[in-house]
């Protein structure tokens, strides 16, 4: 007990739960990862108060900037609980840059926000390693970010991520185009798995199945459940930009994220038009069959929660459909004809057939 007149030792920030030295160490660990994402217009150096990007050096004449931000959702809980931190950074980039490219924009740069209860520099660097890998795949420079140690807000070991991406397109190249019409063809591009949506339901299904993250994945032989579910979101940027540059016949892209097919396809269609989808054409991945069976999830719920095997939709005129399909294949994609645009006075997305669950 302190006696009257006795001086008490002064508190430090570290004793309050924030380690400034750990933050500095993490910055040192990630600097080479960040530098690896350099591109025209950005030197990808960190440490200043803001990141710079030179649009003229990037080769744009009359650009429109396009911005997007997103997170990874409760998928991060699997990373935290399993100790597998190397892929959620890819998801973070993917969720942002896929939203840029659907508007015809080339991703230019990316910034991240990493908040945690207790900073572990090695864990933070592993996460940023994934972010840098995603930026490289998307062609975007990682020009900055923020690491926040927040004891009392996050439990020790917990963390969350947010990402911010900016891209650009020449003024006349923005999507969707204004000539979308009934009869246009809808192509689907395969997903890599659950991507980064619906993980609150995924985790509930895993809990009810009584499985641990270290258990063998019932739908992916040779992988643990955590490894299989943490399969990163596909980044569609380079094949879609290559296709856009090869043909002017593409009218729209739609990223199948939260809300699934019913919510995301109408976002790129004019009023009065909808989409008709052949469910039998969707290449349903084993993970979705397992989720539907284990959780007794109805088909309609699957379609509005998950991508079910298709992560991106491409809209093309019926006369140019073969040209677009060929261009997509030349870019390394494996497009699937899913359906077509229809006149709609009610439900914007309708379905034929059944998912192969």
Describe the structure.
The chain has 357 residues and is of the alpha+beta class. 32% of the residues lie in helices and 22% in strands. The strands form two sheets. It has a six-stranded mixed sheet. Helix 4 (121-138) links the parallel strand 2 and strand 3 (141-149). Helix 1 packs parallel to helix 4, helix 3 packs parallel to helix 4 (121-138) and helix 7 (237-246) crosses helix 11.
Strand content bin: 15-25%
Q: Compute the CA-based radius of gyration.
A: 23 Å
* Approximate helicity band: 25-40%
Q: What is the distance, rounded to the nearest whole angstrom, between the alpha carbons of the first and last residues?
A: 68 Å
**Number of E-state strands:** 10
- Secondary-structure element series: HEHHEHEEEHHHEHEHHEHEE
Strand line-up in the sheet with most strands:
6-8-5-9-7-10
Helix segment tally: 11
**What is the 3D form?**
globular
Which structural class do the helices and strands define?
alpha+beta
**Sheet having the most strands:** 6 strands, mixed
Question: Could you list the spans in which at least 5 consecutive residues all have pLDDT below 50?
Answer: none
Tell me the quaternary state.
Answer: single chain
Overall residue-averaged pLDDT value: 94
Helices and strands in order, then pairings?
Elements: H1 20-35, E1 63-71, H2 75-82, H3 88-101, E2 106-116, H4 121-138, E3 141-149, E4 159-170, E5 185-190, H5 199-209, H6 225-229, H7 237-246, E6 250-255, H8 260-264, E7 273-278, H9 286-295, H10 299-305, E8 310-316, H11 321-330, E9 336-343, E10 349-352
């Amino acid at each position: 007990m302190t006696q009257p007149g006795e001086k008490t030792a002064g508190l430090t920030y570290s004793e309050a739960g924030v380690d400034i030295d750990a933050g500095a160490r993490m910055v040192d660990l990630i600097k080479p990862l960040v530098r690896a994402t350099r591109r025209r217009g950005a030197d990808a150096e960190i440490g200043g108060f803001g990141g710079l990007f030179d649009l003229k050096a990037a080769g744009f004449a009359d650009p429109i900037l396009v911005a997007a931000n997103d997170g990874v959702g409760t998928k991060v809980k699997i990373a935290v609980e399993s100790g597998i931190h190397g892929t959620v950074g890819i998801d973070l980039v993917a969720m942002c840059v896929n939203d840029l490219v659907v508007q015809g924009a080339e991703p230019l740069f990316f910034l991240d926000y990493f908040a945690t209860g207790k900073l572990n520099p090695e864990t933070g660097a592993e996460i940023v390693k994934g972010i840098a890998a995603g930026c490289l795949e998307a062609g975007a420079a990682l020009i900055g970010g923020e690491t926040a140690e927040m004891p009392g807000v996050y439990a020790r070991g917990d963390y969350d991520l947010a990402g911010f991406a900016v891209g650009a397109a020449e003024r006349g190249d923005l999507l969707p185009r204004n000539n979308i019409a009934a009869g246009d063809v809808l192509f689907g591009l395969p997903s890599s798995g659950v991507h980064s949506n619906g993980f609150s339901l995924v985790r509930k299904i895993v809990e009810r199945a009584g499985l641990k993250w270290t258990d063998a994945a019932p739908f992916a032989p040779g992988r643990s459940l955590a490894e299989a579910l943490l399969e990163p979101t596909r980044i569609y940027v380079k094949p879609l930009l290559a296709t856009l540059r090869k043909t002017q016949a593409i009218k729209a892209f739609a990223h199948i994220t939260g809300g699934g097919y019913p919510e995301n396809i109408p976002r790129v269609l004019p009023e009065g038009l909808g989409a008709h989808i052949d469910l039998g054409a969707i290449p349903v991945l084993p993970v979705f069959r397992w989720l539907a069976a284990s959780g007794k999830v109805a088909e309609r719920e699957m379609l509005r929660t998950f991508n079910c095997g298709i992560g991106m939709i491409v809209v093309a005129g019926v006369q140019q459909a073969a040209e677009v399909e060929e261009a997509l294949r030349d870019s390394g994609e494996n497009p699937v004809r899913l359906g077509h645009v229809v006149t709609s006075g009610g439900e914007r997305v309708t379905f034929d057939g059944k998912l192969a669950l």
